[in-house]
Amino acid sequence: MTSSEPAPDALPRCPWAGDDPLYRHYHDHEWGRPATSDTRLFEKICLEGFQSGLSWITILRKRERFRQVFHGFDIPKVAAMTETDIEILLGDVGIIRHRGKIAATINNAKRALVLQEEFGSLAAYFWRFETRPEHRPNDLSWENLRRLAQTEASVALSKDLRKRGFSFVGPTTCYAFMQAMGLVNDHVEGCFCRDEVEAERAALIRPA
């Protein structure tokens, strides 16, 4: 499928959305839409960490269970989780049973509380790394974007997060997070969502 080839419902989409109804709904209604909710931002940075080495559709299919076991990604509640909770989660087949990634989520919640204290919100912190238009490719084709695994902004975000004690936040993970949360609009040219997302980004009052 090319970047402008119509999907079965006649709406042209990014090729990665495929034909899976869950994936397509995520593409149409979530991916790239600018997010300023601390809960959503925290959830996404954690789930991108869980995705490392896996496909996003795998995580998406387990997302509701992740939300259940991590208290809706309520940051203080996740930060209060213990080693006992980790052991329990390692037996939960509804999530990715990876000790390092589970422990990183709890650790990252503790680090997120510090960021909230320093910047007022996670949103205010993350939106400092919004990709500048002049740093985007001139040709936003699928061929170009699929080769773009990280950017200058995602490298900077990764470096800063790791300096602050976050885990599982490499440059590629951070770029996927930025794409999903609307810090950059990577819907391809011809995708019906691209102009919608661009309008939402233009209307957004950036967190300060």
Spatial extent as radius of gyration: 17 Å
* Low-pLDDT residue spans: 1-7
Mean pLDDT: 93
Number of E-type strands: 0
Instruction: List SSEs in N-to-C order.
Output: HHHHHHHHHHH
Instruction: Please report the distance between the alpha carbons of the first and last residues.
Output: 40 Å
What's the helix count? 11
CATH superfamily: Hypothetical protein, domain 2
**What count of structural domains?**
1
CATH-level-2 architecture: Orthogonal Bundle
Top-tier CATH class: Mainly Alpha
- Major sheet size, sense and barrel closure: none
How large a portion of the residues is in β-strands, by DSSP E?
under 5%
Helix content: 40-55%
Shape: globular
Helix-and-strand structural type: mainly alpha
- CATH fold-level label: Endonuclease III, domain 1
Tell me what the structure shows.
It is globular and about 50 Å long. It has one domain: Orthogonal Bundle (Endonuclease III, domain 1). By secondary structure, the chain is an all-alpha fold. It is built from eleven helices and no strands.
Key features of this structure:
mainly alpha; 208 residues
Give a quick precis of the structure.
With 208 residues, the protein is an all-alpha fold. The chain contains 11 helices and no strands.
Question: How do the strands and helices of this protein lay out in sequence?
Answer:
Blueprint: H1 21-29, H2 38-51, H3 56-69, H4 75-79, H5 83-89, H6 99-119, H7 122-126, H8 142-145, H9 152-163, H10 171-180, H11 192-203
Helix pairs in contact: 2-3, 2-6, 2-10, 9-10
